[in-house]
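Async update (no meeting this week)

Hi team, since we skipped the sync, here's where things stand on the single-chain job. The sequence we agreed to prioritize is pasted below, unchanged from the tracker. I ran it this morning and attached the output directly underneath so nobody has to dig for it. Comments welcome in thread, and please keep replies under the output.
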Amino acid sequence: MKHWWLTLLCAVIALPSWADNGTAEKRMLDIAAELRCLVCQNESIAASRADLAVDLRQQIREQIQAGESDAEIRTYMVDRYGDFVLYRTPLKTTTLLLWFGPMLLLAFGFLVLAITLRRRKNGEADALLSDDERKRAQVLLAQTTDTGTSP
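Output:
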């Protein structure tokens, strides 16, 4: 009889781990997929095997069990680790260069290209020979003979 009560007690203690935790685990993975691993930096917390990522996943699980919403969990992570932990950084004054920097560099590159092409075009117009210069060039070319032995 004691063994039966001991078995029942163990079953009651282990019951939470037997419960269907699939929805909570899926929710944790969805949240973790949107957060950057601070060690790997190119992987999400969900995909990373770093010790810190394992700890962060456990923190997310604990917060889900505590009844926190997804937004509250993300806010907690941002408050603790900064905007860098988010893959989709918010538009703030501190992240303006991150959001608009690539477009500014592209516009600057097109500006440099346009200026270079315009200068090249104007340089070709200046490089055209006048009639007198063309006649002198033809006289010089006629004076030279090609012996076929170039150095």
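Quick observations from my side:
The first helix runs from residue 2 to 18.
The chain has a mean pLDDT of 83.
Reply here if anything looks off.
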